Each structure stands twice: as structure tokens, then as C-alpha cells.
Amino acid sequence: MNKFSQLESLLIASGRSLSLKELSKILKTDSKEIEKILEDLKEDYKNNQRGLAIVKNNHKYQLTSSADNADLVSEFLQEEVSGELTQPSLEALTIISYRQPITKEEIERIRGVNCSLILRNLLIRGLIEEKFDKQKQANYYYISLDFVRHLGISDVTELPDYEKLSSQESLNESIEKENN
Question: Considering the domain 3-68 in this protein, what is its CATH number?
């Protein structure tokens, strides 16, 4: 398999920066070879005026949009975040509000569909935050302080029926009812 293609796919799919160590482990390839391929990809994007760029920071790499298109992307994102939230976005936000901290996989298990774009939009709007847990090697989602402030509450426990809806038993009962 083509390592260039594999690296590109991993960087797109991750949605976050990945370390050389992570990439080496996934691709079962020496980190020096991975670093060389990443640098070649970086130069290819730059020299061919592509819409993508690879950014390196603290030995981590991330695929981003090209800085040349920053104004266009900013305008697009501004339009995207100024509209109303969709029903799926509201559902995901509600799940995060009552179940935080929660992983993308857990949200998707509850909703039954892929939530990547929804989570990205909620992050862009500043309604949720994402934190990486090094011990569990997973990203966890939380509602943001801005969102809590926007709701006019001082603590997430002030949400309606918080105690009941945030308990694991309540969620299990709901999922069982849904499956029957």
C-alpha cells in the first residue's frame, strides 16, 4: 500500500494532530520514514498550490486547509455557525450536556449515526470542548462554559431532570426501550 495515501487518509480521518509515534504504530513503519513522507507531502501541497497543508507542532502533524484560502474558509465557517442548530446538533448537544464527559463513539452509539460533522460544528460554535485523555487514549467531549452561560445557569446540574437523565440506568432503560 502507498504510505503517502495512508498517511493522508489517517490525517483526514483523525480530525486532530497525530504524533510520529502514533502514526508509526498505526502504519507499522519507522518514525523516520513517516517523518520523511510527511515532509514530502507538505512540500507537495505547498509547491502545487493545493488547498491542503500539513502543519507540524511539537512533533505532531495535522492536515489543515491552506493558509492561502483562510479568508474563504473563514467566511464559509462564519455562515455555518451563524445559523440555527439542526435537530441532530441539538440531540448531540443534549447528550453531551447530560452525559459528559463522553466520547464520540458513545454519542454515536446513543444516536445510532456518525456524529463527526455535528461535533465539528459544535466545536466551531464554541458550544462544546474536546479534551484528550492520555490514559484512556480517547477524546472526550464536554459542554463549554459559554454554553452554560448562554443557558443562563451556573452549573450543568441545573438542567431539567439532570439527576434522572444523567444516570447510567436511565440511559440503559432508554436504549432498551428503543431496541424493543
Answer: 1.10.10.10
